[in-house]
Design brief:
Number of strands: 11
Largest sheet: 7 strands, mixed
Radius of gyration: 13 Å
Strand content: over 45%
């Protein structure tokens, strides 16, 4: 059974926007965990984009991306969103939702317990 399901990716031209969604299983307690978005482009390491944590939804961002990426959540619908603006060809990657940080930095992949299958974002020049 899938516990995290991403959607919203697609093929867009540079300068466009997308909103990615991650639907989380009912068992996650958003008030106690961190959830995050990562991406991995061809030939590159997996990169942490943003995380949202705890009862207040504190957010954390990769410094180089924070001007164009916004993470948010809907606790009632159990959805974590990633809004992307001003898409660039270098944003082309598979985007993954991660949940339930167990250890380490919020923007490092190794500490997250659960992962979705990802949604592909492809940006054309």
């Amino acid at each position: 059974q899938e516990r995290l399901v991403e959607s919203g990716g697609g093929q867009v031209q540079a300068g466009g926007s997308l909103r990615l969604s991650c639907v989380a299983a009912v068992g996650y307690d958003f008030s106690r965990i961190c959830m995050a978005w990562f991406r991995q482009a061809a030939g590159k390491e997996r990169e942490g984009i943003a995380a949202i944590c705890g009862p207040n939804g504190n957010t954390f961002y990769h410094d180089s991306l924070k001007d164009r990426f916004t993470i948010s959540r809907d606790r009632t619908q159990r959805i974590i969103y990633l809004q992307i603006r001003g898409l660039k060809p270098e944003d082309t990657a598979k985007y993954y939702c991660a949940a339930d940080l167990q250890a380490g930095s919020v923007l490092e992949s190794v500490g997250y317990r659960d992962w979705g299958q990802g949604t592909q974002v492809t940006v054309s020049s």
